[in-house]
Design brief:
It is built from seven helices and eleven strands. By secondary structure, it is an alpha+beta fold.
Amino acid sequence: MIPQVKVPTFSITLPVSKEKVDFRPFLVKEEKILLLVKDSKDPKDVARAIGDVVSSCTFDKMNIHKYCLADVQYAFIQIRGKSIGEDLELNLKCGECDGGNSFILSVNDFDVLNKDVNNDINMGDITVRMKSPTIEHYTTLLLNDDMETIFSVICGCIEKIYSGEEVFINEPGFENQIQEFLDNLPSEEFDKIKQYFSTMPMLHKKIEFTCKHCKTGNEFLIDGLSNFF
């Protein structure tokens, strides 16, 4: 059997879970996956590709079903940085004249928004413990914002419900009770849960630049999955 070329191993600490994870750079097989979805308009294709690459490059340590969006984003750009370079070459369109502007951004320039968000939602005598939405939850909400989808994602992100000394754990077979609990919430309490999703941890970077064509000032926020390619 032909021997395989050894690749280096690196370590990172995930910004939200605080777990230390070892990883390796992309191999050709991962680059093929990314090339296939580079121009895809389907967020699920992009999310699936990022998830597959992150899982493979962390030696199957990271499963996108278990880690929040920000941790997966962070792992991916760090893997990318050690694979094909730490600089992201961006072509940003001016909001005024639509002219293209080149911009170089380092993978280390990103900030984690809401990394210390409180997962406990107090509702008087009841406390709902949430878990941060995963990359799959994020893409699901991007594609569908109807009430049925929102309820499904919320149900999947409820970890536990505390009532006095009783603890109700959201586990397989408990979905109907969670649904009934949500259906019977007062509107102001349900709004607290919806607000939680607007503050979920996410990697982002705000870029300010002056268009080289028309000299108009622009702001550009990078926080989507495809931006990290």
